[in-house]
């Protein structure tokens, strides 16, 4: 994954409407651009970080031209970096330990 620039995730929105993807999380944490289908949890996550442009129409005949414009977009790069930092913080050992402590304290 570290050698790629873009991760293509054309997951079925029906299956991933509410489900996560380990590859999606890994790609975001690695600072990679991910392209997904609309109406999926993955799309919802991208929208949270104003990365709607990464929700793509896979049938578009100009898909690869569009991809090239995305790769050169500095705003997208900044938003991806913000998302990466948020994901690294949330998916950290410290965050897991804190959440686990809250649960155990309630027992």
Give a written overview of the molecule:
- With 107 residues, this protein is mainly alpha-helical.
- The protein has one domain.
- The chain has helices spanning 22-29, 41-48, 63-71, 74-90, 93-105; strands at 6-9, 33-36.
- The chain has a two-stranded parallel ribbon.
Poorly predicted regions are none
Radius of gyration: 15 Å
> What is the count of β-strands?
2
Bin the strand percentage. Answer: 5-15%
| Helical stretch tally | 5
**Largest sheet, spatial ordering of strands:** 1-2
Provide the structure class: mainly alpha
| Total separate domains | 1
- Give the oligomer, counting copies of the same chain as homo and different chains as hetero: single chain
- The span between the termini is 40 Å
Mean pLDDT: 93
Describe the biggest sheet?
2 strands, parallel
Helix content: 40-55%
Topology pattern, helix = H, strand = E: EHEHHHH
Shape: globular
Features:
2 strands; 107 residues; two-stranded parallel sheet; mainly alpha
Secondary-structure map with pairings?
Elements: E1 6-9, H1 22-29, E2 33-36, H2 41-48, H3 63-71, H4 74-90, H5 93-105
Parallel strand pairs: 1-2
Give a quick precis of the structure.
The protein is mainly alpha-helical and 107 residues long. Helix content is 51%, strand content 7%.
């Amino acid at each position: 994954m570290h050698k790629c620039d873009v991760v293509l995730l054309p997951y079925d929105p029906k299956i991933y409407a509410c489900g996560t993807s380990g590859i999606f999380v890994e790609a975001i944490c690695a600072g990679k651009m991910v392209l997904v289908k609309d109406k999926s949890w993955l799309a919802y996550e991208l929208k949270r970080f104003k990365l709607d442009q990464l929700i793509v129409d896979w049938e578009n005949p100009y898909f690869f031209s569009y991809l090239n414009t995305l790769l050169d977009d500095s705003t997208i790069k900044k938003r991806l970096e913000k998302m990466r930092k948020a994901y690294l913080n949330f998916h950290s050992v410290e965050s897991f330990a804190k959440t686990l402590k809250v649960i155990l304290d309630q027992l």
